[in-house]
Every structure is written in C-alpha cells, then in structure tokens.
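Comment on this:
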Amino acid sequence: MNDPIAVPRTRRGTILAAVAMATALAASLLAPATAQASSWAAAPDATVRPGVQLVSDSGQCTANFVFTDGADVLIGSAAHCTGLGAATDTNGCDAGSLPLGSRVDIEGADHPGTLVYSSWLTMQQRGEQDANACAYNDFALVRIDARDHDKVNPTVPHWGGPVALGSTTSAGEEVYSYGNSSLRLGLDLLKPKSGVSLGQSGGGWTHTVYTATPGVPGDSGSAFLDSQGRAVGTLSTLALAPFTGSNGVSDLNNQLAYANRHTSLSAQLAVGTEPFDSSQLPLGVALSDADVAGDTDEDLDLPLLSGEISYAILGTSGTIRF
C-alpha cells in the first residue's frame, strides 16, 4: 500500500493561512450592517437621531433613519428637501437640486453634514424613464461629520425601532411616524403619529397613508414604521387624493436599493437600540411629564389627549388612535 503523500510544512502553513483569511473575509461579509451599534450614543442622550431637523439652502426637513456605509454614518432625508424648484415640483427626473457636496446643518450636531446622495440627481444622470420612479423616488442621504458620531443613535423617538428594513404595507395596516417640523413649536406631544396605510401603488414605489394629524411643511422626509416596527417609508408629499390629509410615503426598500445599485454607496439601515413599542399613546411623552406651553407642573387630563377616529375608505375600514 502506498504511503500517504506528505504535504510540505511550508505549503501546509500557506494553506492554513489561506483558509483562515477566507474565513475572516466571509465573517466580515456576513457581519451585521450595523457594526457601529456598540458605539452608538445611549438613546436618551443622543442628540442626532431620526426626527432631527435638517436645514439646507433649500429649506428645512425632518430626518428619517440612520444608515451606515463602511465607516461613514449617514442620515436620511427627502430629495425634494434640497430641491431648487417650487413645492409643486415633484418629478425628480426633471426638478432642480442642490449639488452633491452641499452643506446640510443637522440639529443636535456640532458640525455641518454633507449631501452625498440625491435620488433626483441620480435619476437625472441616468436618464431614468420609469414614471413611477420619477414621481416617488424622493430620497437623500447626508453624511454626518465623524466628530459627531458619538452623538448619534438610530432609534426612532417614542416608538423605538426600526427593527429591520420593511418591504410592503397592506391596506388597513397600522403605521407609525415621528414628525418634527418647527411648525409644531417644539411640543413633544405633537411629534409622534399613528395612522393606517391604504396599501402600495405606483409599482410599489409609494404607500398612501392617513394619519390623524397629517404631515405639515417641515415634516417632509420623516420616518414611517410598519406594524412590526420595520422601516417602510419616508414622507414625500401631503396629498389631496384619495382624500384630503393623506400622506404620500415613498417606499424605503425601493429607494435604498436604487441608491446602492446606481452609485458607489453601500448604505445599510441601522436598526434601533431600543425595542419597537406600538402600544403607547402616539403623543410623545408620559402624561405626568408632558410639557405644554412650558408648564410641566400640571398633569394633563387623558380625555384631552387621546381618542380615536373610525374610517371607511376604498373598502378598507378601521380605527386610528390619537
């Protein structure tokens, strides 16, 4: 019987080293996209998070979710928030925009952020012909200065999460949002919102959503979570149809995939450090701690703060809590 073939020690060492390198590479590729999670600021202490105001030369909007791209930390906005046209210019394939590299001031940060992605600019550069994408792909990313990374937490205030990236909403599904327009006068009571989705349209690019308190100017870009706490969309428009007060919410899954497919970005959603909880009142603070017009000494009366609206729209019915 032939003796086993001996592998030279140096070759054996090379093989083992190659195996170890391949294993390490595979582990890095399979690692969660939120590898920075251990370095996030504690949620109660974070000053940069979903819901902060983003201000550019074009105006003011609300940040939606936090994203990572390698060592970069990004915060999401709406592309129209850096648009140069009128408020009615909603076709991202021909509307004007500030250029990439533009300064964006971030509430809670000590240093300005930088516009690194606009779906409008990317679609125009590509000559996008999909009418649904042109109408509803309304997404931008702002890079947070590295010196402010220790101020960031990806948790959506009040609701918690996101727990993952969502994909769809069904008709009648409850959704949750957090708007922070300056028109809300800084009142925490007015920022969290719950509502209901009427389902998706526009080839999956948009969700029509109704909330008891609809979005107002300055809320654009803000986050929407589905009934499981998944990041499902970003506020794009305040619609007049199918009924006044409905919100046009652009689909985050499609928007993020478009950004990563057509640019050098590899942006990944950062999940929240706090659990999603949809059971609480959509009013932002505990009743005993509510701050209305600067008065924190008097408890608020529950009947003044809560209620429900029943709806029956396009064959879908249910109740929205507020």
